[in-house]
Every structure is written in C-alpha cells, then in structure tokens.
Design goal:
Elements: H1 2-17, E1 26-28, E2 31-42, E3 46-56, E4 59-61, E5 66-77, E6 81-85, E7 88-92, E8 94-107, E9 112-126, E10 140-153, E11 156-168, H2 179-182, E12 197-209, E13 215-236, E14 242-263, E15 268-281, E16 285-286, E17 296-297, E18 303-316, E19 319-338, E20 344-365, E21 368-381, E22 393-405
Antiparallel strand pairs: 1-4, 2-3, 2-22, 3-5, 4-5, 5-8, 6-7, 8-9, 9-10, 10-11, 11-12, 12-13, 13-14, 14-15, 15-18, 16-17, 18-19, 19-20, 20-21, 21-22
Length: about 400
Amino acid sequence: MRLFIKSCSLALVSLLTCLPSAQAISVSPVLRLSALGGEFFTTSARSTGGNYDATIAPVIGLTDTFYVIPIYLGSYKQVPSVYDFLGESTLIERQLDHQAVLRTLWAINSVWRIKPRLGFKREYVKQTTDDSLQTGLFNYTRFTGGLSAEAVLPIGSFELGYEYGRSKYPNYQATIDDPLLIGSGLTSGAGTDILNYNSHDSSINYDYTTKDKRWRWTANLDWLREDFIDQKVISQDTNFNEVFLNKHRTDDIFTLSLQQTLKYSARFTFGLGEVLQYYISNQNGYDASQIDVPSFTYRYYNYLDTQINPSVTITLGRFDTSVVGEFGFRRYSHRQTQNGFGDFTGSLIHSFNRGAVATTRFRVAKGLYMVLSRSLITYNSNTQFELDYPYNYSVFNVFGGMTWEY
C-alpha cells in the first residue's frame, strides 16, 4: 500500500509541475455511499447484518485534455454471500474490501484517448472455519498496472486494454488443510504459497449509443491469464499415486460479455445481458479418498459457463423499481459427479442457477434514496457430494436502507 501511495504521489507531483497555472484545474466530485441492513437465508443458515459500500472518485481536470481520477472503493458485507474463488464457488460469512485506483485520461485528439492506471486492493474473507476477518485463509492483496487506448468514432467507441497484476495470499499455505482445495489434491507437495499468482489481462471493448440515447449496446471480450508461481501441476505415476510435475499451474479465462439496453419511454427501460465464459487450466485433480475408481481427474478446473440476465426498470414519479433475472448453466469438461458418500458415478458435473433480484428506490431528495432490495437465487447440480464446497443450495435475502449519490 505504501508503494502504491508513493507512486501516486510522485505521479501527481510530476503532472502538477507541468501545469501552466493552478487556475486551469477543475474538480468534479463523484461520491456514492450505501448502507443496507436486513436478513440473509440459505438452505441451512440464517443471518442478520448489514452491507455497506462507498465510492469516492473525483475527476480532476489538469488541462482541457488531461484528467486525473483517483478512485476509492470500499465495501463491508456482514452477512453470508456466494464467493467465486479460482473456479470454485463457496459460501462465506463476511467480506471486507479496500481498493484504490489512480486513473488518468489523455485526449490526444478528437478520436484517441490514452488511459494509464495503477491499482491496489486488499480483501478480507471469513469462511465458517476462520477465526476472524484478519486470519481468513483467502485474504489477499493485489497490485495492478495497466494501459488502454480508446478510439471514439461515429459508429461507437473501441477500447483496447492490458493490465498486469500480482496477487498474494499471506495467510494461506498448502500445509493448512482446507477442504475447498485439499479435496482436489492440492496438498503440501504442490508448493507452499500455492494461491499466489501473477496475471495478464487483455481486453477489447465496444460501446455504441444512438443519438437519441434510447438504445445502447456494449460488448467486451476479455482474456485473463493467471500464472501460479508456487503451485506445481498434479499428476499420477504408473502405480496411480499422486505426484507433482516440475511445472506450474496456469489458468486462462476467456469471457465474452454483451449488454443491450432500450429506454422505451420515460417510464420503462429494458435490458438484456449475456455472458459466456470458458475456463481453462492445466491443473489436474486427485481425490485420495477414491478406492475402487481412479482418483485422478484430468484438467479438474475446466468448465464452460453461460449467464443470461434480462431486466426491466419502471419509474413512477419518485419511485423506481428494477427487476433483474438470473439464468445460468455451467458444465465441467472432466470433473465427475459423486454420490452422497463421495464415490464417482461416471457422469460429468453440470449445474444450473436461476433467480431474480428486485430493487425499489424512493427519492427523498436530490441524490438521496430509500432502498429496499430482495433477491432469491437457487443453485442445482447433478452431483450430491458437497464436502469440498456446496453445489446445491438456495440464497434469499431482504435488505433495506439508504443510498446517497453526489
């Protein structure tokens, strides 16, 4: 964090010394605060607490063509939520995030914009087996740096981006028996800091809005490469025992995201989002508890996932209500189903998720809203063994509170 602050300070000092005068500086503050409290229900648990979010992002215009945007994003979830971790899904009890990003925007001419950025994130995650947020096994820090180039054309804007990142998990070593990973064969033989990785994220984004602002269409294609610096690839010897190869795990995540929005009238807005993700990893799996069937699973983490999210927003005076549907399907390429005792049954795992989120807001004053949010999402799979992490469960929550946008 100190390194990030020092880098940001040096960058700002260098930029300010290039200014002709301080009078050229303009500041457009962006602020959003949210505090919601309520109840969270799963198939087997119930919890009461709050969710708190803060976004601070002043846009500082140093000249007519150069802007600096320091961003702070903070969130604290006191109630359980579904957490996606390296191709796995699990329920966590609490989560605390701090993220700082320094973005710049340089408009070279009427078409091209250059956008460098630096970022830092620290996340605390408490599972049911962790003592506190500070000791969570999945706590991590992440540093990022990237650059993107945007071309604004009459047919829409195109943006090419690249970002490099380094993620470290200070509390997790492979000698700790965590069911989420041990059940797939990630023991101390794989390495010590087996969750630490470096990433390369390349993306192409397209954004088009009609002149009357009624129709918008966006598309994003993203390729994320994760190189695990201390996690060896699992294999098996001629006697079908677990061994580790002298090469490290790499994951490639390809994601295509589409979004269409139609402002039908002042009262109705319709939307449709589609996400297609292909997760590829060279890491295999090994379940030592299997006796009568092979314990080795080739390319354990590979899957294809698709999500469809239709939405509608209705505005009536000071009230607006948004309803978002969630329909998804995931199929693992090699991971087998298991019965309630953990025995492989020969089929490949697939899962469905479906549900809806409804949010109603009442505008109390300019930028100040009372909020009521309800959601119900169900996850179903054709596998029954859930010691490693849950496949079959439902999540329902009701939250109410206030949000302020400035």
